[in-house]
Structure formats: structure tokens, C-alpha cells
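Tutorial handout. Part one gives the primary structure; part two gives the three-dimensional structure as C-alpha cells.
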Amino acid sequence: MPEDRPKSARQRGTEPAKNPKCILNLLFPYLDFRFAIEENLGYKVNSSELNTCNKELTMVEIKKYIAVDLGAESGRVMLGSVSAHKLVLEEIHRFSNGPIEENGSLRWDFNRLFSEVKAGIRKAAKAAGAQVWGIGVDSWGVDFGLLDVDGKLIENPYHYRDSQTNGMKEKAFELMSKREIYENTGVQFMQLNSLYQLLAMRLNNSIALAKAKHLIFIADLFSYFLCGKIFAEYSLASTSQFMNMRTGRWSKEVLDRLSLPINILPRIVEPGTIVGQLTAGIGRELRCGPIPIVAIGSHDTASAVVAVPAAGDSNWAYLSSGTWSLMGVEVPRAIINDKTFEYEFTNEGGVENTIRLLKNIMGLWLMQECRRQWQREGTDLSYADLADLAEKAKPFASHIDVDYGGFLAPGDMPKRINDYLADAGQKPIADKGQMIRTILESLALKYRSIMEAIEDATGNTIEILHIVGGGIQNELLCQFAANALGKKIITGPIEATASGNILMQARATGQIRTLAQAREIVRNSFDLKEYQPQDALLWDKQYKKVHNW
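Part two.
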């Protein structure tokens, strides 16, 4: 039986190191400098002691951390410098990401991505010019890799957009009712969830699943290959629909009813836990010392929410904007009731004993896929070009449900959108700017419907929406969101996920003490922008119109 949601190192009270003179030993009692000494990596150590004393290191005002931030379109390795009041980020390495086709399925090219991650860490460690206090890895949710009995990756992980999950929700509901699954998990029903991926593998008699000794979610899989430790970080594991979000433990009820193996699921660790250090082999390869590996909020949205620059007691919500849009609020415990079931809200784990009550929305994926299709057809327009064209297009010419299931898979998105419009009795769109405007307006109106549901489910009126992530660079969408919601919007930072990643590492090392302190550092470190509603009556009229379609 796996160990579920153990206490964090801070809660357990880690035993003091044998050498009290060295703060690195106090913070990271398991760091082993022997390979670094043998390989002459710059560490001068007598026995197991560093030649730097506790007093000298505690007086260092700036500490450096490495964030590995893996997105569905790209990955980046960032170097963060944290002081008592400020965070400075430096992008060290960026690389493309996306699915590959392998044996008729969509997969992630793990070996290529891991090579890029290692290259970035090596560059970042060199650029730091000082002791690196931690490495944290975050990624998208739901996807996972399977390890065999020898700890080797059996096959490339499936991509969440792979068609293997088609019809799997319905198969699951034959074994356990939709309401029962929600009652035992509290997670939104999406066919890409880990639950339906694993069910598909079982029903398809997957050879990889038969060989599997361990299942590890994507960010934690990279951490495993860096440090050799098998674990499931709480926020990332919570996206799977394997977990009972009331207890923070694997849901034996759901897994048993669907005949899914609970024994391959790892122990759950809290965000902000130091799980290990770079292995000697990786350290030698990257020519760097024994850097701690920290399980931060390994789900990218959990890290992004850490970096929401909220202040005071105002009622606020967040929107993490990118390929996906995730809108929600931070609450102290899971809310699982008839209203959240009806609205299909998800309860995902946050940091510092919080729950992210949120809704997943298709986000800028539709715009990204339209752009890719037009590139294939010979027209290469930047996102800024597309936004300019959209701004000049006719308002409210069409409307789509951005969460329509036919938009999930990669492909010819303009055609799919026009097919949707034809089925809905609307005119097809030929103009590129008009199509992008329809996507952005429809997204903004979707945001309003989700905001109203959040207010209904929580009983709170939201005063401010904080939007973070790369999507805030689309200023037209941000203004449309303010118009549709009729609320003030504050945007920033763009690199929210990397910021939250690094700040949770600083929390793990004790450099910062609270989530409120982390958010104060964000406010001190990044430029924020405000949007006020415009054309409120026009947007209100359109919202009421589309709700009657």
C-alpha cells in the first residue's frame, strides 16, 4: 500500500545534521559532496564539511534556484535570484515541445526533453556562479510515465490529446456512476484525465501497464531521473482523478471499482518538500555539485497561483492563461457538493494546505491551432499580427463554445470551427482576423459564465480577477475579459509558473516563511497592468444572447 500524503519535512521536523557549522548540512542533511570532490567540481571540503560556516551563508542575502518549467508548447529553464523583497528571473534555456506520432499514437518525446532539461540545468548552474540552493520541476497535469521493476521508463508517455481516451468516460460511468466518481474525487470530468488514460490502457490490455512497477506524473518523472527518488507531488497528483480530494489520499474506492492498480501509485509528498539531490551520475555529466531537488507545486498551475500578486483581504480569483485557461479561487478545503458537481468544478491541490477550486477551459489552444494550420497553408502570422487583425474585425459576428469536444485534438482548427458554426446555424468565417476575434470573444464570454458559477458555488462576490501567464501578452483578450466580466482585471507576471516554482523552493529552504511573503515579493518584482471594463452594456447584451442560443 503506498504511503499517502505524509507530513512535509517542515512538519516532521528534520533531524539536525551532524555538522552544525554548515547551513547547507542543516537544510539539506542528505547532500553528499563526495562525487563533487572526486570530480574536482570546485568544492573544497574536509571530510564531509564545507569550508563555509553557518554564519557566512546565513548572511548571504540572495540565494539562487533553478526552475524547470515544462509547457505543452515549450519548455524553459530559468535561474532565479531571491532576496528578502525581490525575485529576479533570467531565462537560461528554451526549447520547443509538442507531441510526436509513435505507433499510431500521440506521445511525448521524453529522451529529447530530458536532454534539453539537462542542458538547461548545466547552463544555469554555470551562470549562477554560486551555490544553487535547489532545482524544481513543474509541468502540465494528468500525463504520466510507467517504470519497470528496474526503474526504467517502459515507453514514451502518452500525450493527453491522444485518441485512446475517446469513449473512456462513458466506460467508467458503466462501472461507477458519474456522481459517485465525483463524490470520491471532486475533480472535473475531462476525457484527458489520468483516470481515463489508465482505464484505456487496462481495457486495451497494455503491455506497458502489465510491466509497470511505478506510475509517475510528468514533472515528477523528470525529477526522478535527476535524483532517483520516486514520489507523487500533491498538486500534480491531484489532477489525475485518482485522489480523494477531501483526504488527500489515493481513492481506493474509485480505483477498485474501475479495476485500476493502486499499488503502482507512489507516496504523496507535500509541495515544498526537499526530496533528494542530483545523483552522482547526473552531477558528473552536468559538471555541477549536489543540488537539492525540491517538489514544488509541481503542477504548473499550482506554481502559477503561488505567484498571483494578490494583496489584502479582497475577494479575488485567478486565471492562468496559456494553451489552457484555468479560472478559480483559493479555498481552505475541497468543496464537493451538488453545485460543484453541476458546474463540473475541479478541486486541485494547492500549496500551504490550500485547494484550487477551478474550471479548466480550452484557452488559447484554438488560436494556436489556427495559426499552425495557416502556417501549413503558407501564411505565417505572429500572435501579435493575429491580435491586430482581430481588433479590426466585426464585433460579435459569431459565437462558439470553446470547450466543444471536437476542438480537443490537433488538426485543422479553422475547418472545425466552421463545421461547428454550420451545425449551429451560423455563417462560416473566411477572414482570419474575424475567426480569431470570434475565438477571443467566445473565450471572454466563457470566463463570465465560469465567474458567475464560482460566485454561486462559494457564496462570495469576486472583486478582482488576476490573470497570470503567457496569455496576458494578448492584451485584446485581457480587455475583452474585463468587458465581459464587468470587473477590474490585474495582469502579471508573465512568467508566473517559473516565479512560483522558485518561490516554493525558497519556502522549502526557509528563506521565505509564508505564502503572503511570496506574493509580496511578486508585487515588488514585476510590472502589473490594470484593465477596466469598457462597453459593458454591449457585452452584457451579447452574453445574454449567447446563453439563449
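Part three, for discussion. Confidence is low (pLDDT under 50) at residues 1-27, 40-59. The first strand starts at residue 45 and ends at 46.
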